[in-house]
Amino acid sequence: MSALSSPLRAPREAGRSTSLRVGGFSIRVRHRVFVAVAGSFAVLVAVAVWSAATGSTPIGLDRLWAALIHEGTKGDEYIVWTLRLPRLATGLAVGACMGLAGALFQNLTRNALGSPDILGLTQGATSGALVAIIVTGASAEVTTAFAAVGALVTGLFIWTLTRGGDPSGYRLVLIGIGTAAILAGINGYLLTRTSIIDAFRAIYWLTGDLAGRDWKQAATVAIVLGAGTLVIVFLFRGMDALRLGEASATGLGVRVGATRVIALVTASVLTAGAVAVAGPLAFVALAAPHIAARLTGSARSFTCAAICGALIVTAADAVAVAGIAGRQLPTGVVTGVVGGAYLIWLLIAHRKKGVLS
Amino acid sequence: MTDSQSPLIVEDATIGYGRVAISEGLSVDIPEGEFTVILGPNACGKSTLLKALARMLKPTAGQVLLDGRDIHTQPTRAVARRLGLLPQSPIAPDGITVADLVARGRYPHQGILRQWSAEDERVVAEAMAATDITELGARGVDELSGGQRQRVWIAMVLAQQTPLLLLDEPTTFLDITHQIEVLDLCAKLHQEGRTLVAVLHDLNQAARYATHLIAMREGDIVAEGPPAEIVTAAMVDQVFDLPCRIIDDPETGTPLVIPSAGNRGAASRARELEADALVKDLV
Ligand SMILES: Nc1ncnc2c1ncn2[C@@H]1O[C@H](COP(=O)(O)OP(=O)(O)O)[C@@H](O)[C@H]1O
Ligand SMILES: [Mg+2]
């Protein structure tokens, strides 16, 4: 029951679109966005399957399938169900959380640099984790909780500093950069105050890694992702209208203050959940929305940003497992190198003002 | 002169930013079905009044009534279906197309389930036709001329389908042809039955197009009423510190403000003398 939008009545868009209308439900699907979302999702599935089938001990598609439907050998089922799938699921959810958080921050600040890495949330999570590791010498669970609290507190802190002001443009970004610098200093200090063993654990955490993640951790991130997605479904249209500026958005009936607070809290929670479980995987939250914008031709596609985040993390993790000269790498090393290189390429190759900001 | 018919009423309101009050004890009626123009020197509080009317600023005392009820107690989306706002410097997201921008005007009529109904599509097409931008639909807003861009913004506000329109300086930064084009569009919208409130800078254009004038100075209302009644040499001097003569506009018969030559002559003579002295000093 889909009606193609009539070419005579419909205003021409940048690219074609199809209107789907069923009863009281109606939506406009832009063909380019649809292709971008479907295409990146297909690539994501392929990478996920490939990484599950290869890994440090390649088992191939046949044995992977057999293990998945519980008809494989005990060894294969252990590899697939206990080692690979939880790690894969964690990576997918972490990447999606980071992609969404980055997209939220970029929309909120109307700035291409709006991302939890730049705004200090990642550093806040790190401070939390370092306090847990160094001061309390704590378990992984406590470290996770402290990291989440660190990200949330940082999010609230930068929000408090911008209160009453418009967070778009450079205002929130500059406040975030300052906050990030202060936190980086604190983190450095914390590292100097500890034993060499704790410092090693801390540095390892700082790099970010998915090795050894279990179903419990995957479930934690998945819940955060689900909650964040639900909020974004309700928030999306108001955020879109806010891109027209505070005045026009108010005129259109957007509750500007509430929309901004909810967006900031949601982005902080998504960041906290992802970083707490996987560590501060560098550049994912910054790069994913940019890639999504390039693919869809629009800065509005949260779906594509989530898929791109998941894709970056999953692909980086597959590379990390394959490693260099037989040695596995922490996932964060790969996302840092790949994401950073991508960003530089982006800035050099696309200086033209466009969908990025 | 409180008229119970007025859709928008400011009642004894204090409006400002933080602790700074721009207008105190301000009372204004926006008469139904009229084209109201707000006039006044720069920084006298015209935009501030418009922001209060559009619920962007909340009065610290007094209130703004929309259809007889405090505008701030009404759901903001419901208000957005009654009253549209074109701010002084609206922001177009990078790379947005004309049709996409106009479609944003449908926001207060849409929801999570209803994102792009047949009616939305029809109203957007109508708004674009009314502002003569149908041909520009696929163009980027940033590629347009100032006049075209202003028509696009007006189309966006029209797509909101509100009986009340507030426009802050819709003609500023446009050349004279495009100013007239936008004002003619406003006049058409007014004739179709909408209530318009616009901030304008040009006295003569205001006198020609407005059916109701509000003249402001330093946050207060100095005069209000039909242009033919209130545009006098005394009023212009009081509001703008500008000695002038008023004659009938030969095209429309509306008041036409002719600034006095005496003053300007004196000022430019003084400047010439100064320049002469400077040249002598140099030589
Ligand atoms: N956002 C703001 N914050 C603080 N002061 C403002 C703000 N906007 C305007 N003002 C001040 O309020 C006064 C009236 O401004 P405004 O209503 O914009 O004048 P105009 O009549 O030119 O539209 C000016 O002195 C201006 O500096
Ligand atoms: Mg103004």
- Detail the poorly predicted runs of chain B: none
Number of contiguous helices of chain B:
10
Largest sheet of chain A: 3 strands, antiparallel
| Number of separate domains of chain A | 1
Helix content of chain A: over 70%
Can you describe this structure?
The complex is a heterodimer of chains A (357) and B (283). Chain A has 357 residues and is mainly α. The longest helix of chain A has 36 residues. Helices cover 71% and strands 4% of the residues of chain A. Chain A has one domain: ABC transporter involved in vitamin B12 uptake, BtuC (Orthogonal Bundle). In chain A, helix 5 runs antiparallel to helix 8 and helix 6 runs antiparallel to helix 11. Chain A has a 3-stranded antiparallel β-sheet. In chain B, the strands form 3 sheets. Chain B has a 6-stranded mixed β-sheet with strand order 6-7-8-3-9-10, sandwiched between helices. In chain B, strands 2-1-4-5 form a 4-stranded antiparallel β-sheet, with helices on one face. Chain B is globular. Chain B is built from 10 helices and 12 strands. The model of chain B has no long low-confidence stretch (mean pLDDT 92). Chain B has 283 residues and is α/β, with parallel strands linked by helices. Chain B starts with 7 loop residues before the first strand and ends with a helix. The chains are: A mainly alpha (357), B alpha/beta (283). At the A-B interface, strand 3, helix 9 and helix 10 of A face helix 2, strand 6, helix 3 and helix 4 of B. Bound molecules: adenosine-5'-diphosphate and magnesium ion.
